[in-house]
Design goal:
It is built from twelve helices and no strands. By secondary structure, it is an all-alpha fold. α8 runs antiparallel to α12.
């Protein structure tokens, strides 16, 4: 048995096709991982474009260390949730004794090794004043990395690692072929776009720069439209596939998860924020935190719905 199997198979939903195994930990981990990935991509893109923080006091502007710091917090909370879900917790270190190219969990564990240093370097790229004043090494590192070229290259690295992390959260489910609902190539791009949308919503909510807030709201509108399209492709792909996949889709189309999916995810989590933010960017209503909060909650509910419904979808007629 490989190290990955030792750690993970005891809690895998493939163990028993008729028993719910995953609880709240996995959806929370997938949501926080996607949010972190989106923050890395957005902040990395701002650095790659050569953008500088327009207001040095604005800690949560895109071209600053604030969002990288938030990413450190969110990925750490996600890792705590994932750790709580593991059965063989003392053996988690064995994930890093091998690399299995066919295992998404192996890819994910190694990607996470890159996520932490990239986020930490993002914070040190524009460190808080207390670190600059009390830790001389931090100030020297900032001077070395303050060139436009260094910031652009770091932005590309942040984008690449963020895309890997965001896509992995969907691949983790789609690799489990024993669950028909998860047997879809749309899950990886869907979770990546959803993570970007939640990150844009969060940045839109917290940034104190009005111009940046409007840009992020427009970006989030485009991402919400893309996410709605991918959800449609996801459902169409299931319905138009085998009978087993159609039964899996029926869980969201008249089954026990219909209300929470269409009301909680599609309605309140996507359509309502899209309408509100469209009115905000056209200056018909004042800026409100309601829309980004709904996007964040919708992204979390999406993970809960797909993880829970996926676990009760199976190949048997029973």
């Amino acid at each position: 048995m490989t190290p990955i199997e030792v750690i993970s198979t005891a809690r895998s939903p493939v163990t028993d096709p008729h028993v719910h195994v995953w609880g709240w930990e996995i959806p929370v981990y997938l949501f926080l991982g996607g949010l972190t990935a989106g923050l890395m991509i957005l902040s990395g893109y701002a650095l790659w474009r050569g953008r500088r923080n327009p207001r040095p006091e604005a800690s949560f502007a895109l071209a600053s260390s604030g969002l990288f710091g938030v990413g450190l917090v969110t990925i750490s909370l996600g890792m705590v949730a994932l750790f709580l879900d593991l059965v063989h917790k003392p053996y988690v270190w064995r994930l890093y004794l091998t690399f299995e190219p066919t295992s998404p969990m192996s890819w994910g564990s190694w990607i996470l090794l890159l996520v932490y240093p990239v986020l930490a370097l993002g914070v040190l790229l524009d460190p808080p004043r207390v670190l600059r004043e009390r830790v001389p090494a931090v100030a020297r590192l900032r001077r070395l990395a303050d060139s436009d070229r260094a910031r652009r290259w770091f932005g590309l690295v942040s984008i690449a690692v963020g895309v890997g992390l965001g896509a992995y959260t969907g691949l983790l489910l789609s690799s489990l072929g024993a669950r028909p609902m998860w047997s879809s190539s749309v899950l990886a791009p869907l979770f990546l776009v959803s993570g970007l949308s939640t990150a844009a919503a969060f940045a839109h909510w917290v940034t104190p720069v009005p111009e940046e807030s409007e840009q992020l709201a427009r970006l989030d509108n485009a991402l919400i439209v893309a996410e709605l399209a991918m959800l449609a492709f996801f459902l169409i792909g299931l319905v138009s596939s085998t009978e087993v996949h159609a039964r899996a889709a029926a869980l969201l189309l008249g089954g026990p998860y219909t209300a929470v999916f269409w009301v909680g995810v599609v309605g309140l989590g996507l359509v309502v924020p899209l309408v509100i933010q469209s009115l905000v960017v056209t200056r018909r209503v004042a800026h409100t935190p309601l829309a980004p909060i709904l996007v964040l909650l919708g992204g979390l509910v999406l993970r809960f719905v797909l993880v829970s419904a996926g676990q009760i979808s199976h190949w048997s007629r029973l």
